[in-house]
Amino acid sequence: MTDADGAAGGAANTADAAEDREYRDPDALLRRAGVRGNPDRDQHFLVDDRVLDRIPTYLPDETDTSHLLEIGPGTGALTDRLLAVADRVTAIERDPDLADFLREEFADEIESGRLTVIAGDALDVELPDFTACVSNLPYGVSSPITFRLLPEGKPTVLMFQKEFAERMAASVGDDDYGRLSVSAGHYADVEVVEPVPKGAFAPPPDVESAVVRTTPRDPDYTVDDEQFFLDFVKALFTQRRKNVRNAIRNTAHISGLAEPEAVVEALPEETLRKRPGKLAPSAFAEIAGIAAEHGGPTDG
Ligand SMILES: C[S@@+](CC[C@H](N)C(=O)[O-])C[C@H]1O[C@@H](n2cnc3c(N)ncnc32)[C@H](O)[C@@H]1O
């Protein structure tokens, strides 16, 4: 059991902290909550103890675990593991019945101030001042939640659909490389740390899953206007089979460029001939800088 009064924990301590601790059985939690999981509400509960045990251990070394955030705690199987390695946990659950169940099930932890349960939509509620986030995410809103979390600059360990995870972690030139890879990589190093089969969940989802670790860092390039950079990346990848010249011309309505033709004229021919999937994030940053200087963006 972690020392609730101690200094900020670290991921290096997560294995020690959790050692010999008896966790709540995920199947028993489902029974006590009286739920089966409703896929229409993004409810697929993790019931494989080994996967549950490993998830907190993927936090980067030296992570400050003093205040962990969990999105979509469900019946609390992962919450229980997080309480073993954190000083405090805040859990945001959209389903009000599950939030009520958690308040009963974890009454002692709530009473002692170690757990806060917020009933609400993780896309809307104000996020607490967390030090790291560990979650088995609702897949229907993975992307908006992830891009709410990443700009906070905190380590995360998150479960995604496998295909989404691979796109997030892809490098330039990979088949999966795209908008998601560049946008996530703008904020953090992204690694797929464990594939998770459908059978680890109840009810099993239609797709395979994977756990992803993100370790925040500054990018190896600079951008003056982050929103324009992200919009520009999004715009070019809507035309991934076109070369950069045509992609810029065809997507001014998405990137917000006022004068796409002026941007094309300002860029070297070698760049214009490439496809977006062959541009490293630093190349996108350079092109976005030239684009902002020569052709926009428009004001709104
Ligand atoms: C994939 S389940 C994970 C449950 C639990 N963490 C586990 O591993 O067993 C996703 C959970 O997120 C909740 N959820 C769905 N959409 C949400 C949202 N927008 N904000 C917060 N929670 C949400 C669901 O009710 C469900 O409990």
Structural descriptors:
methyltransferase, 9 strands, Rossmann fold, alpha/beta, EC 2.1.1.-, Helicase, Ruva Protein, domain 3, rRNA_Ade_Mease_Trfase_CS, transferase, 7-stranded mixed β-sheet, Probable ribosomal RNA small subunit methyltransferase A
Plain-language structure description:
- The protein is an alpha/beta fold.
- The chain has two domains: 11-216, Rossmann fold, CATH 3.40.50.150; 226-295, Helicase, Ruva Protein, domain 3 (Orthogonal Bundle).
- Helices cover 39% and strands 16% of the residues.
- It is built from 15 helices and nine strands.
- The chain has a seven-stranded mixed beta sheet with strand order 4-3-2-5-6-9-7. Strands 1-8 form a two-stranded antiparallel sheet.
- Strand 5 (132-136), helix 7 and strand 6 (156-161) form a beta-alpha-beta unit.
- Helix 8 packs across helix 9 (179-185), helix 10 packs across helix 15 and helix 13 crosses helix 15 (281-295).
- The N and C termini lie far apart (53 Å).
- 43% of the residues are buried.
- The model is unreliable at 1-10 (pLDDT under 50).
- The protein binds S-adenosylmethionine.
- S-adenosylmethionine binds next to strand 1, helix 4 and strand 3.
